[in-house]
UniProtKB/TrEMBL annotation:
<protein>
    <recommendedName>
        <fullName>Ras-related protein RABC2a-like</fullName>
    </recommendedName>
</protein>
<dbReference type="InterPro" id="IPR001806">
    <property type="entry name" value="Small_GTPase"/>
</dbReference>
<keyword id="KW-0547">Nucleotide-binding</keyword>
<dbReference type="InterPro" id="IPR027417">
    <property type="entry name" value="P-loop_NTPase"/>
</dbReference>
<comment type="similarity">
    <text>Belongs to the small GTPase superfamily. Rab family.</text>
</comment>
<keyword id="KW-0342">GTP-binding</keyword>
<dbReference type="InterPro" id="IPR005225">
    <property type="entry name" value="Small_GTP-bd"/>
</dbReference>
<dbReference type="Pfam" id="PF00071">
    <property type="entry name" value="Ras"/>
</dbReference>
<dbReference type="InterPro" id="IPR050227">
    <property type="entry name" value="Rab"/>
</dbReference>
Length: 221
């Protein structure tokens, strides 16, 4: 059962978000255009959006109950700086979970995950036991597929992370991606410790690295 409510970063200081067991920082990583922002928007909201190219949001807060725990998820998205091939170390700092996204119709986005993003994650993540999930997005465009499901599974196995294919457009498997990741985080005692009260304030006080333009709480709404 996944019960949720959400708010954008701009309203995250409002009431109602103090009642939780753990606070987790989740990141979206991958090439520009793979659908990171769309996945975030789809997960945060409960209805189908018209998807359009997004400029990045900084982060979104979502309250969920998963595995019987009340969780405050701070989900960070890039503001488009992934186009330059690198994010900064503070984007990765303190992450409990990382969603590595590629586009199943663009092979180069799959290659980038191995050659760029997985290396950055290894270099910069400060939680050695941080959970990762590999996600192939845009499966609704199956006719244009350039990366097979088997290849995705093989890379996930090699990187020791779980794997799902999904579509931000049809919403297929999107909630499942986040849920699988979070259930795995909940199994790791060191991550729970880092997501508990002592660290809550620290995470909330962290400033987004790349401040998004004003009033863009969510670009495709
Ligand atoms: N067909 C299809 N298009 C998608 C999907 N997810 C994202 N898109 C489109 O892909 C483009 C890039 O998406 P965006 O979320 O901005 O990617 P980002 O740069 O990784 O944040 C946009 O035009 C989206 O509408 C999907 O699952 N299926
Ligand atoms: Mg984006």
């Amino acid at each position: 059962m996944l019960v949720s409510s959400s708010s954008s970063s701009s309203s995250s200081k409002g009431g109602g978000s103090n009642n939780y067991d753990y606070s987790f920082k989740i990141l979206l990583v991958g090439d520009s255009g793979v659908g990171k922002s769309s996945l975030l928007v789809t997960f945060i909201s409960n209805f189908v959006h018209h998807l359009s190219p997004t400029i990045g949001v900084d982060f979104k807060i979502k309250m969920v109950t998963i595995g019987g725990k009340r969780l405050k998820l701070t989900i960070w998205d890039t503001a488009g700086q992934e186009r330059f091939g690198t994010l900064t170390s503070s984007y990765y700092r303190g992450a409990h979970g990382i969603i590595l996204v590629y586009d199943v119709t663009r092979r180069e986005t799959f290659t980038s995950l191995s050659e760029i993003w997985a290396k950055e994650v290894e270099l910069y993540s400060t939680n050695p036991e941080c959970i990762k999930i590999l996600v192939g997005n845009k499966v609704d465009r199956d006719g244009e597929r350039a990366v097979t499901r088997e290849e995705g599974m093989a890379l996930a196995q090699y990187r020791k992370c779980s794997f799902l294919e999904c579509s931000a457009k049809t919403r297929a498997n999107v909630h499942q991606c986040f849920k699988d990741l979070i259930l795995k985080i909940l199994e790791v005692p060191s991550l729970l410790e880092k997501g508990s009260t002592a660290v809550k304030k620290q995470i909330l006080q962290q400033k987004p690295v790349h401040k998004a333009p004003e009033n863009n709480g969510c670009c495709s709404q």
